[in-house]
Design a protein that fits this description.
mainly alpha, Serine Threonine Protein Phosphatase 5, Tetratricopeptide repeat, 0% strand, elongated
C-alpha cells in the first residue's frame, strides 16, 4: 500500500513537470502583437483622403444650384498667394497702357519732349563746353536736344549754327544763322550771325543743289548718331549722303568712321583713302591717315 502511494505520487509529479512543456508548443505562446500597434495599423489602413466638406443645405433654402460656392480660395491657388505673399505673377509689371507724358498746350512739342526751358538751358551749357573742347558731334547733339525742349531758343540756335559751320555743313549752318536773326534781329549774337552768313555764301553754290542739300541733312543726322556711338544707323545716313553727293569728301570720311566703329576695317580704309583723294589738303587728312595706319596695324597688311 505504501509503495502504491509512492508510485502515485511519482506519476503525479511527472505529470506536473510535463504540463509546461506541452503548453510551450501551443499557439498562444508565440510572440504576441501589442494591442496598441495592431489598432494603429488597422486604423491607418482605414484612412482615406478627406473629401471637401459640402455645405449643409437647409431643406427650406431652395435648390442646391442656387447656393454660392466658396470663392475665398480658387482652385490650384497656393496658400501664399491667398494670404497676400509675393509671387512671380503678382510682381509682373504691365508696361503697356502706361500714361504718356503730355506736352503743355501751345508748346508744339511731341509728348516725349515736353516744354522744359530749364532742361534746354542745361543742354546749351553742356553743348558750349563740348564746343570749346572741339567735340562738335556731342555739342551738336546737345544743341539739337535743347531746341526740342524749347523751340526757337535763340542761344541754342546760334551755337548750333557755329557748330555746324565747324563741321563743314554750310547749308545747315547758314540756315541756323538766319533762324537766329529771325528770333532776335538785334540780339547779342546778331552781328556774328550776319558775319557767319557772309562767310558761308561762297560755299553755298557748291551745296545749293537739291541732292547736295539732302546729303548735308543726312550728314548732320549721321554726326549726331556717331556722337551716340550708334554706328549702324549712322552708316545708313552716310551711305545715302554718298549716293546723293558722290563728290562730297566729308560724306566719305564719316562713312569710314562709322564702318570703323562697326569693325568693318577693310571697307573703312577704302573710304578714308577716298576722302584723301578728294580733299588731299583737307583739315581731316591727318586724322584719315592716322586711321589708315591703325587699321593696317590691326589687319597686318
Amino acid at each position: 500500500m505504501m509503495k502504491t502511494c509512492l508510485y502515485c505520487s511519482f506519476f503525479f509529479l511527472a505529470f506536473l513537470a510535463l504540463a509546461p512543456a506541452q503548453s510551450s508548443d501551443s499557439k498562444d505562446n508565440q510572440p504576441n502583437i501589442q494591442p496598441g500597434t495592431e489598432r494603429s495599423q488597422s486604423t491607418s489602413k482605414k484612412k482615406r483622403t478627406p473629401t471637401p466638406q459640402q455645405p449643409s443645405q437647409d431643406p427650406d433654402a431652395g435648390p442646391a444650384e442656387n447656393a454660392k460656392p466658396n470663392e475665398s480660395v480658387k482652385p490650384n491657388e497656393s496658400a501664399s498667394s491667398v494670404q497676400g505673399e509675393s509671387s512671380s505673377k503678382d510682381s509682373l509689371v504691365d508696361f503697356h497702357n502706361q500714361p504718356i507724358p503730355k506736352a503743355p498746350a501751345n508748346s508744339g512739342q511731341p509728348a516725349e519732349y515736353p516744354f522744359d526751358p530749364h532742361k534746354a538751358a542745361k543742354d546749351v551749357e553742356v553743348g558750349q563746353f563740348y564746343l570749346s573742347r572741339k567735340n562738335y558731334r556731342a555739342a551738336l547733339d546737345r544743341f539739337r536736344e535743347a531746341l526740342l525742349y524749347k523751340p526757337n531758343d535763340a542761344e541754342a540756335t546760334y551755337y548750333m549754327a557755329r557748330t555746324l559751320e565747324k563741321m563743314d555743313l554750310p547749308t545747315q549752318a547758314y540756315d541756323a544763322y538766319s533762324k537766329y536773326l529771325e528770333i532776335l534781329p538785334q540780339g547779342p549774337s546778331a552781328k556774328e550771325s550776319r558775319e557767319g552768313m557772309k562767310r558761308l555764301e561762297s560755299r553755298l553754290d557748291a551745296a545749293g543743289t537739291e541732292p547736295e542739300k539732302l546729303a548735308a541733312l543726312d550728314i548732320e543726322t549721321g554726326e549726331v548718331l556717331l556722337a551716340r556711338n550708334d554706328f549702324a544707323a549712322a552708316q545708313g545716313h552716310f551711305e545715302r549722303a554718298v549716293r546723293l553727293s558722290p563728290e562730297n569728301p566729308v560724306a566719305y570720311l564719316r562713312l569710314a568712321q562709322s564702318l570703323q566703329g562697326l569693325q568693318r576695317l577693310d571697307e573703312a580704309r577704302l573710304y578714308y583713302r577716298k576722302y584723301i583723294e578728294l580733299q588731299p589738303n583737307g583739315k581731316y587728312v591727318s586724322d584719315a591717315r592716322r586711321a589708315i595706319n591703325d587699321i593696317s596695324l590691326v589687319l597686318g597688311k
